[in-house]
Amino acid sequence: MKKIVLSLLAIACSLSFSMAQEQPATQSIKVQPMFGGKSKSEAEQKQDEKFLTSCDKNFSTRQEASKFFMERGWEYLNEGQTDTAMYRFNLAWLLDPGNKDTYWAFGLVTAAKGDNGQAIGLYDKALAIDPKNSLLLSDMATSYLALYKEKKKKKTLKKAAGYLATATAQDPANAYALYNTSMVKYYEKKYAEAWDYLHKSRAINMTQIDYGYVMELVAEMPDPQGFFKQTAPESATDTAQN
Length: 242
What we know:
Layout: H1 2-14, H2 19-22, H3 42-58, H4 62-78, H5 82-95, H6 100-112, H7 116-129, H8 134-151, H9 154-170, H10 175-187, H11 191-204, H12 211-220, H13 236-239
Helix pairs in contact: 1-3, 4-5, 5-6, 6-7, 7-8, 8-9, 8-10, 9-10, 10-11
């Protein structure tokens, strides 16, 4: 019942915007992080005020409203609707600029669109609020790894390694950080260590493993534990030896 009520409240809040904003164009500031960081026109400012006033009437706090729009944004992002997700995250940010999850979400969407440089700047904003968040640190490292793959700069790889070390220090069971640390070791040509971290990761959560990477590692050094086969698998279960 609560979800139904909140959905109705969201519809009421959204009525403050035009249909064009509900289905934003790719170049619109509505689908750029923090509305593109650009000054808004007087009409746009009035729309913002109307939206905030509507949410003030329908939610107990702006933080609650921000959380609600974040949840809707994650739903759209999981469906692959990145622009619609970004718009919802922007609404969440408008409601609560201190919500670290908005900057985190901005970074994830931006990285998904291929701009890891900008994503890093957005993750920085989130980390300024929550510097010890292991998963957030892992996502930051992922963007640095993506940049390293593009340009092969050692300082970029070093940055990734630093964030991953902090992430695993905060949460030794962070499988994603362990997996990415394996990749760092691979790029450093420390293949035995790469296997060690890979096995630590897959023992916790095997679903995130990229088997293309596994085959690249196998090509450099056979799996010391004999868990992974020498040929590319058709599925995760085919990869592991029984």
